[in-house]
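Lab channel / #folding
Pinned by the channel admin:
"Please post every new chain as: sequence first, then the structure tokens as a reply. Keep commentary short and put observations after the output so the thread stays searchable."

First post following the new format, from NK:
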Amino acid sequence: TQIFQKDPELVQTRPFVTFYSVTAPFTMIRSQFHKAKLQSVGVHVLKGIKFNFDLNKFFDIDSTNETLNLVHFQYVNNPGKNYSVVVSQSDFTNIGREGPFHNVIYFEQGLPSDRVITKSEDDIELELLDDPFDNVVNITGVYNTDACGIERCHFQSTAAINCGGIEFKINDDCDFVSFDNIFNDTSGGRASDLIMNVKPYKYYAYEIFGHMSNPTYPDRPTIIIGDDIIPESYNFNRDKLEFIIIDADNPVRHKREQKFQQSIGEALDHMALNYTGWDLTFQMEPGVHGTDGNDPWGQTLTIGRTSDWKDRIEYFHPQKITLIGATKSVFDEDGDDGAVDDDDDDDDDDEGGEEKEKEEVIIQRSNGNAFAFKLIRTATLILENIKVQGSRTRVDGDNAFVTTYDESHIILDHMKFTNTDQEFELIKILSYSQVILTNNLFLNSSGSVIVSALYTNMSRNLTITGNVFANEFFDIDVLQNTDHYITEAALQITIGKDLYFEFTNNTFRYLKMDGDNQSAPLRFIGWTQYQKFTDNTFEDNLNFGTGGTIISLIGGGLGQLQDYFSPNRIIRNKERQDPPSRTYVANGHDYSLEMGEPFNHLYVGDGIIPDRYYTEDVIRSDLNEVINDTDDLYPSQLYITVFGKVEPYVIIPFNKPLLQLDIRGEDHIEQLERVGKDGDVHPYEERTNTSFILQKTWFVNRDRKHQLTKLNITYTGVPNEFVFDLDRSSAIVLRDLVLNVSQQPVIKTVSKNADEDYVGYINLQFSTIATISNVVFGPMKLRDPLGDWKTCGAAIIGDNITQLLVQNCIFKDIIINNVSQALSAIHVGLVYDDITSLGPTHYPGILKVTDTVFEQTDSEQTNVIIDTPLVNEFVTPAVTVYSVLDVLFTQKTNHGTVIFNNTQFIHCRGGALRVRNVDVQIGASCRFRDNKPFFKNYKNLQWNIQAEEETILEANEESFVKEDTEDEESYSWIILYGNEVSIKGTIVKNQGLYLFAQHELSKVAGVYNASHQGAIITLKGKRFYPMGNLKFEVYEEGKEDETLITLGATSLVEDDQYINTEKVLNYLLPLDLEEYKDKPWKLRMKYGYGDEGVISEEFNLKIK
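Reply from TO:
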């Protein structure tokens, strides 16, 4: 329930809730009361046979009557096993700050006669109480209230005349409890937190613990019980209880004081009488801690047991345990593991070594003493600064040192595990709520898996960082019985899909593996694209198993591994002669050469190589040789850094169908000096970039990916081939490039030789993916499509592509070789999703363009007037994008998506954008300016967008109309073909009248022309642009349905006699017989958006 007062100044005269009954129960759970000013009590509950008040919230509530309470309970009862009445887990925030109540909560238990009796005298049980009240009859149960109190509530910023929290007016037959409550910024005239009017009856005084108090006025009482004001020194802050665990060999351990226990298990057992919510901290003294436990076998400590009843006493088992080694850390300050400095003499070495052993807190495990922790339910275990060591015997069976279940929490920090030998896992993380493993050392550990963890739910928190899994020494020899080796994985993590997980700054050093082809120091079973696996170190790990793997990935979609599995450090001892390990293996396939790790990098350059790179053994001078040396039979990937030099690198054709490439240029920088005219030496920097001359087309083969970064590339091949050509299902990434062709176009002329015209820079085929970022496309002259828009060349051409992302690019003067010299940058068809297709299912393709400029030079040479008739479609627009039709003509379910953000189309003479059967989103940051085709008789015409068929176009008017433009001139210059196009955004201004232009018809006339077999209809007016949905309807007066004739673009007449302009249009009205010209013809104009569009007034059409 939520009750919210819209007008907080309105005074409410009645309570939110009023309840009275002697036969019905009262329950209020998860109710919320917001913003109110009360003249009455807020919630009033009187009697009732059952009481339940949990998880309620009160916010921003004030009173105008300081004698009343916000919540008032009278004579409430709760029959059941314990007959307790408790206010639980509720919040009270900003109460009475601008008008105090008498109490925030007033709990009035009253006399026994006031309460409802639900048990007969025959049902009264005799309860025998412990000393000193033996054989005393307890009849309080008849009144159904043994205890009352408050638990896990939060009072924040409250103010009251009497008590800022809760006042209990109870009889002395009732016990009182208060635990885990928080009172912050609370104030009351008598007490800030709690008032209880009398001390409870006889032996059970009161129980208050977990009480957190931060009153508004610290000098005032916080708790009053009877006549006693509880002093501040006794503030019940018991959320941290500390104990000391003494080494088994220490005689002090036999003391029976509360803070000294024989073992961890004994300490936990001693605390079983206490409240489960306490955080118990055990400080372990130096020494070896052996056999321990609180189960019959004396080996496993189970944390998280529920309470037990024994002899009418409830035993609460500890739930939140912290074990801390008495030393600051088991690691030295400088990070070593306790080795003695060589400068020390022998005596000091022995003494120092012995002293070091005494300083450590050690838990020792063996097959006969598998000291272990098991966490169940919501238990919490924190282990810090403790050394766990094995003995000479292997721990057999499923005896992990720590095992987690249910919603438990565990933190292992600065732990040291040495010489542990397990048959299975050392640490087994199953179900849990939170697991944190940080800065732990696992040294010389053996077993199947050292640490295994499940991570399959976002509600869980798994953190693994800063840990070291290592053997003490590097030994290249084959495995011996005495070796510390692992059969499956040092660390195994099972991860569900779509989970965010970070694995950073961990080290795997000198480990020895001996298992199947999936064994590895690190193994992921299932993994996610949101996984961040970075800054980890793998140093000289040996795998003698059949796989020889360092990182094993099992299950999960592959995607692009290098996007979330790098950078990491793979360190390999140069003296090793064994074959290199397969570092990244996913589902049996080796992806090691696809990862951008330093071990897999090659460097190409002439002359001086910067010191920060590897020495000459990985430096090459011939880039072609590096590429041609790759294996033709095995898939591989090269990561190559190419350093700049004065002369460009010449790339000759290569045929490597299985090769994946990542080539990155790096400027060559030299710090030089010159002597100035003043005779002083002036330092300066000389920078040489990386340039390629590409002699033939660069092919990306099927299912391969190539990435080129920070290069200048000039193509010198034949014009009728693309610079980059992608096969099916391949990918290319181009970043920070400058692309040019050797034959620069002459802007002001139209070439006669079509063989010199190019076809484009990039060709994308079926299911290809391209990412193009920060690329400058140099000038190029493209072949004239001769009126067929489908064959128009462009800088980027594609058919049935999956994804094209263009960011921060410049397309300028990539022009068509005709008189318009129109810019043509992108011409692509997108894959769409078709559930009825017989082929594989594909998601709809996407074209996304951001921060990009499409611009044609604006000059007298380029702005040539076209004296041919107006073309009624965009044949050579800057961008053309459409969804590819299925050859089976099955029904489409989703069109491709086109997105433009912060993109400019400037002086695009062939039109800016043509779209067909796609969903187009044009951000308000985009700009379309001066895209004029320059037809002789249509000088004001602009071509921004042509939308066709089932296109959905969403855009805003500011993208097309300059600021301060008069409304009647605010045309978006968007032309629609057909009635299936949908438009959204502010371009739908005036029902789409201004999408293209607001046509105006003023005069009509007709002349019969026998040679044309009809009448030439001449129309006069303003803003006549015969494109898109502009049409004229002619019909006989009174016979519209029978004689309607539509005149569209195909009916235009254009010759030397009839010239069409923005003010005059000539259409042919076909008439079978000349005498038909005398009929009473009517004419009207129709245009605009939607099925109806805009219809003009009727004109009388007289034909001579």
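NK: The chain is about 5% helix and 40% strand.
TO: also worth noting, The domain at 1000-1103 is CATH 2.60.40 (Immunoglobulin-like).
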